[in-house]
Amino acid sequence: MHSHNAHNHFIRNLISFKIYRYNCTKFLFLKNQYRFLIPSLVWLIFCTVLFTLPASAFPTEKWYTKIPLFDKWVHIGLISILSFLFCWGIYKGKNIAENNKRNFILTGIICLAYGIMIEFIQRYFIPNRSFDTGDIMADGVGALTGVIYSFKRYIKK
Question: Distance of CA 85 to CAs 2, 40, 137, Å?
């Protein structure tokens, strides 16, 4: 009777080890897959810092006001890079190719939502900053630009 219990204990431990090993292997795969999102997350932090700076953090000598729609170009540039970096991370993460189209479009939508959220944060929480629908339109153009570039570069026809 004692050897039967020892045998059951051995089988349970073996099964538990195999499940543990499978989960660890699966976790390492995910970890490797998601490492490609690190550049986009770093860029997201950079953008968030820039977008949430108070107006007093900008230079008093406003040389950039001589550039037409400078603020809008900044939004287009930052958000298009953000959108592209997330699409690049999705592409490099070895996702199923058919999912890339859907994921790229979703990335553009999320980047636009991020831009809208930033405008509300600027309006309600950042001193001397305001809500600007023009910035939201620029964010939309940036998100679309990043997604279109990613489609052209990574989606096979």
Answer: 60, 5, 20
User: What does residue 67 show for φ and ψ, rounded to 5 degrees?
Assistant: -90, 120
pLDDT digits (tens, 9 = 90+) for 110-128: 999 999 999 999 999 998 8
CA quadruple 69, 74, 83, 47: dihedral sign: negative
**In this predicted model, what pLDDT tens digit does every residue of 1-24 receive, in sequence order?**
555 666 666 666 656 655 555 554
Helices (H) and strands (E) in the chain, counts: 5, 0
Rg (CA), the chain: 24
Residue 28 token pair: 């390492």
d(CA 22, CA 65): 58
Distance CA 15, CA 21 (A): 10
Q: Whole-model pTM above 0.90?
A: no
